[in-house]
Amino acid sequence: MNIQTLGIIGAGQMGNGIAQVCATAGIKVVMCDINAAAVQRGIDTVSANLDRLIKKDKLLAADKQPIIDRIHGTTDLGALAQSDFIVEAATENLELKKNILKDIDALAKPGAIIATNTSSISITRLAATVSRPQQFVGMHFFNPVPVMALVEVIRGIQTSDETYAATEALARRVGKTPIAVKNSPGFVVNRVLVPMINEAAFVLQEGLAKAEEIDSGMQLGANHPIGPLALADLIGLDTCLAVMEVLYREFNDPKYRPAPLLREMVDAGYLGRKAKRGFYTY
Ligand code: NAD
C-alpha cells in the first residue's frame, strides 16, 4: 500500500507525536482535533521537539521547516477525506471513539485503512462500528512517541492480512519496531507491565520493603532501567489503576485485582509526577 497522506484524529500527547514521526519520515500529515487550541499546541510541541533534536545534532536545522510544512493542522474532520491511512488518537472513551470512527468511516476514501491508538478498548469491538472492519486495526504507539521504539500492531478478529501488513510496514517506515499482537485486554505490554507495577504496590502496602528498596531491587536484580513504583509515578497512578480495572473486568480474573493502596492513592489525588506526589514526592 502506498501511503502518501496520513490522517490523525487528536492532536494531544499521542497525536502530535505520531504526526512528528510520520512527517519526519516524509509522509504528508493531516492532524485534526475538535479543539483549535489543541491543534496549535500540537504543532508547537512538534516544533519544540524538533528544536531539541537540532540542539542535540540529531536533526539538521534545514530539515525542520519541511517537516513542519508536511503537517496540516485542522479542526475540520472533512480534511481527512484524502488520507490513505487514518490513525484515531482522540481521548480514551468508548462512546467518543465509536462516534468518531463512524464519522471517519463515512468520509474516508474506499480502501483507506482506519487504525486506533487506543490503550484499552477492544479492537474487535471498535472494528464492528465501521463498514470496513477488515481495514481496521490497532496501532498502539508508546509515549513519548518520538522516543519509544515500539508499536503494537493489534489484529481484531476481522482485520485482514493486507491491513496488518500495511500497518506493520507503516510502523517500520516511521522508524518503529512493530510486534504482532492478537486483540486482548491490555494487549502485550500493558498486560505484562501494569500487573507488575500493581504487585509492587501490594509489596509496599504489605510493608515488605520501602519504595526505594522495591525499585532498587528491580533495577539491580532484574536489570530494569527504572523501578516499578518510579515508573508508576511517570505513567500516572490513575492510568495504572484504569489498566488494572480493564484487565480485572475483561478477564473476570481475581489475579488482576487492583492493589488497595493504588486505589487509595488515586482517591487522594497522589497521581505521580503530574501531581508532584505519588509513590515519591517531586
Ligand atoms: P490527550 O488528552 O493528550 O489528547 C486527546 C486529544 O483528543 C485532545 O486534544 C482532544 O481535544 C482530542 N479530541 C477529543 N475528542 C475529539 C474529537 N471528537 N475529534 C477530534 N479530536 C478530539 O490524550 P493522549 O494521551 O494523546 O491519548 C490519545 C489516545 O492514545 C487514547 O486513546 C489513549 O488511550 C492512547 N494512548 C495514550 C498513551 C499515553 O501514554 N498517553 C499511550 C498509548 C496510547
| Fraction of residues in H or I helices | 40-55%
CATH-scheme architecture of the largest domain? 3-Layer(aba) Sandwich
- What's the alpha carbon Rg, rounded to whole Å? 20 Å
Q: Using the coordinates above, name the CATH class of the largest domain.
A: Alpha Beta
* Spatial strand order of the main sheet: 3-2-1-4-5-6-7-8
Q: CATH superfamily membership of the largest domain, which one? A: NAD(P)-binding Rossmann-like Domain
| Residue runs with pLDDT of under 50 for 5 or more positions | none
Give the SSE string.
EHEHHEEHEHEEHEHHHHH
Tally of extended strands?
A: 8
Q: Which fold name corresponds to the CATH topology of the largest domain? A: Rossmann fold
Number of helices: 11
List key phrases describing it.
2 domains; globular; binds nicotinamide-adenine-dinucleotide; 11 helices; N-(1-d-carboxylethyl)-l-norvaline Dehydrogenase, domain 2; alpha/beta; 282 residues; eight-stranded mixed β-sheet
What does this structure look like?
The chain contains eleven helices and eight strands. The radius of gyration is 20 Å and the shape is globular. The chain has helices at 13-24, 36-55, 61-69, 94-107, 123-127, 161-173, 189-205, 211-222, 228-235, 237-251, 260-268, and strands at 5-9, 28-32, 71-74, 85-88, 113-116, 136-141, 150-155, 177-182. The protein is an alpha/beta fold and 282 residues long. The protein has two domains: 5-182, Rossmann fold (3-Layer(aba) Sandwich); 191-275, N-(1-d-carboxylethyl)-l-norvaline Dehydrogenase, domain 2 (Orthogonal Bundle). The longest helix is centred in the first third of the chain and has 20 residues, at 36-55. The protein has an eight-stranded mixed sheet, with helices on both faces. Bound molecules: nicotinamide-adenine-dinucleotide.
